[in-house]
Amino acid sequence: MNEQCIPPEYSFRVEVNINFAVPTYTFYNSHGQPLSDHEAIVISKPNTAIIFTLTGNTENLIFAAPIITADYQSDLTILISNEQQSVTIYDNDLNNESVCVKLVTVRASEPTRSYISRDPRMINRPS
After folding, report:
1. pTM to 2 decimals?
2. How many Å apart are CA 115 and CA 64, to the nearest integer?
């Protein structure tokens, strides 16, 4: 199979601290480096998978459905897996767009109280 046909995957570890008035989400790339608040995830191939996995989870948090805005083409597919410890977002097309994604976590024992992340923005830029 031609490697150019295989859509890329971007994996991020996510640490959530709910012990502040405003919960903090820290995103780490595959090299273990934290993403800055203004850093975007740039997509250049269709069907790209962006995977967020909870790590250092001492608060018994799980992922709930993320809040997505500016997905005007409705081309994102969301999969929550691994006992709700991972959320994968598949970007099915390659329109020039900037999509707002806010991750949502809840305590398994308190599912009605949610903790919402800042926006790890996703930008489509065809190569």
Report:
1. 0.85
2. 10
Q: What is the pLDDT of residue 118?
A: 79
In the DSSP assignment, the letter for residue 21 is S
Neighbours of 44 (CB within 10 A): 12
Q: What are phi and psi of 29, to 5 degrees?
A: -80, -175
User: Whole-angstrom Cα distance, residue 20 to residue 28?
Assistant: 20
Strand order in the sheet with 86-91: 24-28, 9-17, 48-54, 86-91, 76-81
Whether 83 shows a pLDDT value over 80: the answer reads: yes
How long a stretch of residues is the chain?
Answer: 127
Q: Do residues 106 and 58 touch, judged by C-beta distance below 8 A?
A: no
- Dmax (CA) for the chain in angstroms is 50
Torsion of CA 83, 70, 41, 24, to 10 degrees: -60
Which one has a higher pLDDT value, 74 or 115?
115
State the Cα–Cα distance between residues 89 and 43, nearest whole angstrom. 12
Give the architecture (CATH level 2) of 3-124. Answer: Sandwich (2.60)
